[in-house]
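Below: protein 1.
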Amino acid sequence: MSVRHTRPASPVVTAESLSEQVGSGGLVASDAVARYALGLGDDALILAQRLGEWIAHGPEIEEDIALGNIGLDLLGHARSLLTYAGSAWGKSEDDLAYFRDESEFRCLQLFEQPNGDFAATIARQLLASTYFVALYRALAGSQDPTLAAIAGKAVREVDYHLDHSVQWLLRLGLGTDESHRRMQRGLDAMWPFVDELFRPQPELDALAGIAVDPASLRGEFDATVPRLVTEAGLTVPKPFRARGGGRSGVHSEAFGPLLAQMQVLARAYPGATW
């Protein structure tokens, strides 16, 4: 049985269209909104980079395509969010992606965790997609029209990312003894990074009605993920909190090598186009 990744067409909200508005002077984020968009953009960018590492290494050809498509969706979200963030500081999406150092990135630590085996990647993707669905559904109601438009497009895509993860969770959890063991091990490895997704961010108090309070998303997550894990015959891991600190530029040891690989070409040939 193959797990297929398909989705309907989404409304057109692209980094290119945002760039045109920024270039014409018609779209500039405030500094506070830009910092918020930067964190969300970094989350999507870094997870997209991680998923790209699976290309030509998936357990089957169709899964190479599926994970690549999910990564491209996330890259699209990142491009739009980073373009909007950069409008506040006169920076492009490439400036922000390729020419910041490790401590300047604001991604949460779940998204930078190494792929591990395929089951660990599915565990990470299940947690990330559940979070993204709740986040973008709420952000689609933002009073900031640009954030609302980006979220409105993104939520259609992450709905399918979640479905893909759930299918694999069930397939691995209810499969062989070995697939069950690996799926449980993947969940146990990724679970410590869940808490950081929902930690309050005091700097967002000034963005009431614009930003989404992370703590407000916890209820939906807790009503979804434990149920899915149980349906897959697996055990919900015991609560354990990693140190976190991604929004303040504190990252795990795996982040540096990921960033070096992502940035090496742009830094070796600054200003190059192809």
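Below: protein 2.
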Amino acid sequence: MRYSERDEWLEADGLGGFASGTAAGVRTRRYHALLLTATTPPTGRMVLVNGFDAWFENAAGLAALTSQRYEPGVVHPDGATRIMEFSVDPWPRWTFSLADGTTIEHEIVARHGAPVVALSWRVLNGSRGMLSVRPFFSGLDGGQGRRPRHHTARWKAG
């Protein structure tokens, strides 16, 4: 992986909730989540969305845009290997480079004053395709471990 699992980012919503993770996109801590809301600030928090899997499919094939860590230390799929750039300014932004030269930008933004996190992907250059995203829903108290539920959504990109 080009970017480290030790380099972390956090997007606060101003209400005690946040989205957080690593530059490599792999969740390594219990509180790494896509949507963690403050139910009774400052202590009560609930993880509504742990994270997601995303992949892009075009004429060149299927390419993962995410990676997850499983025991015993297995990272799958290989989306983290496609990260070409990462920045936290003004919010977390990843640029992925696919084997066929397609470049995709992904951003995560927390809305200040509301328990809302927005995700965006856009093809910067290269071929059109289909983006699929599978969020991991949970509804757990502040990062307690339990398998999240899965749902897959698809959008045409390009």
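Residues 143-150 have pLDDT under 50 and may be disordered.
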